Prior knowledge:
Order of helices and strands: HHHHHHHHH
Distance between the termini: 72 Å
Shape: extended
Number of helices: 9
Radius of gyration: 29 Å
Low-confidence stretches: 1-18
Number of strands: 0
Strand content: under 5%
Helix content: over 70%
Largest sheet: none
Mean pLDDT: 78
Structural class: mainly alpha
Amino acid sequence: MKVLILVLLSLFSLSGPAQEDDELLNELEADRRKQMEAAVKLNQAREGLAKEVESIPDQLKKLGFEKIDANALMNPEVVGLVQKMFKDSGLQKKPPKEVRDLILENVKNISLGRFLMNNPRVMDCIVDIVRDQNAMSSLVGMFLRKDDFKIYGGMWICLFILSWLFKKIVFGKDWSGGKRFLMSLMVNICVSCISLSLFYRMFEAELSPTAQIILKHVSKTKS
C-alpha cells in the first residue's frame, strides 16, 4: 500500500513539469507556425511584385525602350506603366513589417540595405511612402510635366548666374578668406532654399503626399 501511495505521489509530482513541457512545446509550435505564415506572406508579396516587374520589359519593348530610365520616363505611356505597377503591386494592403522585409530583401546586398538597417526611422518613413496610395505614383507623375521641368531648369540657371553676379559685385577684394567663405556659404544656402522652394511650389501636387509623410516622421523624431 505504501508503495502504491508513493507511486501515485510521484505521478502527481511529475504532472506539473509535464504540463509545463507541453505548454513550452505548444508555444514553440505556435512561434514556428507564425514564422512560416510570415515567410509565406513575404514570398507571396515577392512573387506578386516579381510578376509585375517581369511583365514590364515586354511592355517596354513594345513602346520602344529596353529599360526604365530617365529617357524612358519622358514617355507618358511608360510613366503610366510604372504608376500602374505601383498601384497593382498590393503593397498598400500589406502590413508595414512585410513591406519592410520585402524592401530589405531586395537591397540587402548593397550599401543602401546597410544604411536602412542602421537607420530604422528612415526605413519606417520609406515603408510608409511605399505603402501610401498616392505617394509613389505621384512622384513618378512629375515626369509627365516635361515643359515645367524645362522652365525650372531655366529658373535654376538664372539663380546660379544671379548668385555669381552678387558675389562679384558685393564681395570686397580686401575681404579675408574666412569672411569670403562664410558669405559665400550664406549666399549658396539662400540660393538653394529659393531653388528648393520653387521646385516644391511648381510640383506641389506631385510632391505633397510624400512631403506629408516625411514631415509626420520628422515631427515624431522631434517629440
